[in-house]
Design a protein that fits this description.
Shape: elongated
Helix content: 55-70%
Order of helices and strands: HEEH
Largest sheet: 2 strands, antiparallel
Structural class: mainly alpha
Radius of gyration: 24 Å
Number of helices: 2
Strand order of the largest sheet: 1-2
Strand content: 5-15%
């Protein structure tokens, strides 16, 4: 019984170490990412959404998106 509990504790410790490693790796990846710009077609040309004023940004958010299957 005691040996079984020890094995389970070791397994849990191994999982904790794996999760810590995954967290560390994901934190490093976040630092390496570049900012993504979103463009939308606006009156015949592409415009970056990040440069929209408040009104235009709200219009863009209110649009309905359709998926074509």
């Amino acid at each position: 019984m005691v040996n079984k509990i020890r094995k389970e504790v070791e397994t849990i410790k191994q999982w904790i170490n794996i999760l810590k490693l995954i967290k560390k790796l994901s934190m490093n990846q976040k630092l390496k990412r570049t900012k993504c710009e979103t463009y939308t077609r606006c009156v015949g040309y592409l415009a970056p959404v990040q440069r929209f004023n408040k009104g235009k940004l709200q219009e863009w958010k209110d649009r309905l998106m359709f998926k074509i299957k």
